[in-house]
Amino acid sequence: MNTKIAAFLRDSRPATPCLVMDLDIVADNFCALRAALPDTRIFYAVKANPAPAILKLLVAAGSSFDCASIPEIDMVLAAGATPDRISFGNTIKKESDVAAAFERGVRLYAFDSEAELDKVARAAPGSRVFCRILTSGEGAEWPLSRKFGCEPEMAKELLLAARFKGVEPYGVSFHVGSQQRDLEQYDRALAEVADIFHDLAGKGLELKMVNLGGGFATKYMVDIPTAEQYGQAIRDSLLKHFGNRMPETIIEPGRGMVGNAGVIQSEVVLISKKSANDNRSWVYLDIGKFGGLAETMDEAIKYPLVTEHDAEGAESEPVIIAGPTCDSADILYDKADYRLPTALRIGDKVEIRAAGAYTTTYASNGFNGFAPLTEYYI
Amino acid sequence: MNTKIAAFLRDSRPATPCLVMDLDIVADNFCALRAALPDTRIFYAVKANPAPAILKLLVAAGSSFDCASIPEIDMVLAAGATPDRISFGNTIKKESDVAAAFERGVRLYAFDSEAELDKVARAAPGSRVFCRILTSGEGAEWPLSRKFGCEPEMAKELLLAARFKGVEPYGVSFHVGSQQRDLEQYDRALAEVADIFHDLAGKGLELKMVNLGGGFATKYMVDIPTAEQYGQAIRDSLLKHFGNRMPETIIEPGRGMVGNAGVIQSEVVLISKKSANDNRSWVYLDIGKFGGLAETMDEAIKYPLVTEHDAEGAESEPVIIAGPTCDSADILYDKADYRLPTALRIGDKVEIRAAGAYTTTYASNGFNGFAPLTEYYI
Known about the structure:
Chain A is α/β, with parallel strands linked by helices. Chain A has helices spanning 3-12, 23-36, 52-61, 70-78, 95-103, 114-123, 152-162, 184-202, 227-242, 255-258, and strands spanning 18-21, 40-45, 64-67, 86-88, 108-111, 128-132, 168-173, 209-211, 248-251, 262-272, 281-285, 305-306, 316-322, 331-333, 339-341, 349-352, 374-377. The first copy, chain A, folds into 2 domains: 23-259, Alpha-Beta Barrel (TIM Barrel), CATH 3.20.20; 260-377, Lyase, Ornithine Decarboxylase, Chain A, domain 1 (Beta Barrel), CATH 2.40.37.
């Protein structure tokens, strides 16, 4: 594993469970994405991990920020970003929050409905707005519902209407689904976006920006495309669909920026069977679904687990892995066919790899009395 | 609705989302359970809502407490309970936490495996221990997995073995599943427990206590048994299976103690459709799965929703209800066929009833920047 994190765990022996993030990896991820898409502005999706250390690093690196709420906007401003580097990317905003963002200087807003467009027009007059369209999310590991976005036909109508509401119809956004390994999905979405651009140009509205959203994967159990492969696929699709009328582009990586930079150190609390002839052991860790591993919901995200007994050829056995709370739903992996070393014992450490995204803030506010996840940024 | 909560919401106009709990209802629930099971000790399942106001009320009322962790034990002690009123009911405990509980005077511990029994024997010598057995959870609305408990045969072996480990094999516990409306489930479990008692008595071990767990329901959308009906069913089953050799009994109500005492006040952030001919509207509230309504997972718990437009005969329409975060999984009800008034507008209040249990501590630690749920106890 990452030697910096390994050294920290060895030397500091922090109480478990805890998340340790290597900020150098975040910086590397930022550089890799910038190199892969040199003409694209990067808006870090703050919700993936809003730690001040990460925000400060990305401010210094030149990143912009995709924010979901006023507290996230304030965290980004506190880290030193100017408001022109902030997109209020949530399509579900209280009008009072739009006004608060406008007051802070934010001038770029997402919407996907007439009511939301009207709120932005009233509370953030003159701002740039982009309309999110629905995509299928096919191939994404984290479920993409129809919660965000509208059908392209509605997007066209709303963008045309925006001109008369005192805001600037600036572009279109989409999201291919989190942890998207199928690069073809970007092409499909960009074809739809290009159609909107073309159609609206014919009606006298020249859109300027395509927001390509996120989807950039973190390596869990299976291989993923590299940043360069994501970039190549996106650049090819942009060229194919927009030719020499290339729009401004932005991306909103969250998981792809921080996921592989973090390791959660946990401890085995109990290993047991339910009867003498039970064919699988239960391994209970001191972190579960309510302590930061919410993305194990429906076993969607399969984190790599590493122990000190993993030497090649070491005997392993099938296990059910669960968290420490008194909630019967707090099971991490049952159907996913996890195996752990037969030599694993109570008190042993289990490293949960690639845990830098969607863990700290997903942790519950003290469920069962367990404190939120402790965090170290090194 | 509850006039005390209504008056508070009307007069104080708290910012949404917030939970308002009527402590009188908690007191009423405690009295109703005590009246229904006068010979049974009540151990409140602290995890359902560990607010100091609730703990203090229940300490004064004479309740005991089922705790899942050292922080919960400390909250109960801080509320004025003596340690003899505490059960460390989690079957998954670090040995250091068993030692910490023992140090605080706790002398009653749950286990369901040999390894856990050994931890308790080492770290809490001389204590009373009870073994949790597996039950099917059939009929429970919140999923009951095989996470807790062991098969009865293993329970017998472990309880017999406990005698030689320096702890007192005190009894057996089970859980029929949270929000259990089928009273027959208690009878099935008690038949198994009585068999264990009988079998072990034949081997010279007289167990003394049956822990009936929880399962006591809160009224959400459909009717539920009264406390008296739960009590009658349990008393009948105890008599049937134990006759004149009645054991001590304890219950661990959580949801049944606080669920109906709380209302979450929320606000409509957005109402929208995805296309002009969409047949259902999306209604986005300012609270969702990560803000306290985690029990909407798989639409398991169906909270009653109340608005100011609910007059009899008022027009309503089918809706999808979602939370305010940028997470596509943050949808409360899609398949559950919820309807809301056609007159509902952005900015209107929506009351989420029977929300006193498993909400405040399930709330995430600031996911998307949204603060944990504000709480008022009146």
